[in-house]
Design goal:
Blueprint: H1 11-79, H2 87-112, H3 116-143, H4 154-166, H5 175-200, H6 204-227
Length: 228
């Protein structure tokens, strides 16, 4: 009688074991690949986030630099302006440059600011100061050669600008807040210059405009301080 070898694996059993082994290996490999893919995706997301944060920071710095540059360019132009000795003419020339600086800063705020009330204020500043620039340019065309009867007050005008230049402001990176701080300083400089015109100018139209600037910009200074 032939004995059965119970421990001798059949071909079917070996095939089954091999298939199970392949299946386990495949599943393990898939899990490993999935983990590697997941880790890679996480690394990629973190890298992209870091790059986005860096780009945002660079954009903020660039915007702040543009505001700071606008202020510096304005003051350099005013400082390099040739004074005529006519208080009304010198005031108008300086204020045109001063307004142009405000418009540049306000334009940057509209493009990059976050707070709608601050952006709305910036838009109003642009409209008001563009209108005043047009009025002053029209007056200048008719009166640029007019002789002054009040004496040379160019030194007083320059001193009012120097006070503004001495107020160096440190940028914080908060675009809206930096705009408000710079525009408060800017308006205070305009008020100082307008005071010189009111006290020493002789042209009724320009003296009236200077007083209106004082009233309006003082009100805006209070408004901006409340926004900060």
């Amino acid at each position: 009688m032939k004995k059965l070898n119970l421990f001798k694996p059949s071909f079917i059993s070996l095939s089954f074991i091999f298939i199970v082994f392949l299946s386990v290996s495949f599943v393990s490999s898939c899990n490993k690949n999935a983990e590697m893919k997941d880790t890679s995706m996480k690394d990629s997301l973190m890298k992209n986030k870091s790059m986005d944060d860096m780009e945002k920071k660079m954009d903020k710095n660039m915007d702040n630099n543009m505001m700071d540059k606008s202020m510096s360019n304005m003051m350099n132009k005013m400082k390099g302006m040739k004074m005529t000795g006519n208080t009304d003419v010198d005031f108008v020339n300086m204020m045109i440059m001063h307004h142009q600086g405000a418009i540049e800063m306000a334009t940057t705020e509209i493009a990059s600011g976050k707070k709608e009330n601050v952006k709305s204020l910036a838009n109003n500043i642009i409209k008001d100061q563009q209108k005043e620039i047009a009025t002053m340019q029209n007056w200048l065309e008719k009166n640029k050669d007019k002789k002054s009867t009040s004496g040379d007050n160019s030194k007083k005008l320059m001193e009012s600008m120097d006070d503004m230049m001495d107020d160096n402001m440190k940028m914080t990176g908060d675009h809206d807040n930096d705009f408000l701080s710079m525009m408060i300083m800017h308006h205070e400089g305009a008020v100082d210059m307008a005071d010189v015109e009111v006290d020493n100018g002789t042209d009724p139209e320009i003296k009236k405009m200077a007083q209106e600037m004082i009233n309006k910009q003082k009100a805006e200074i209070d408004q901006m301080k409340n926004m900060k």
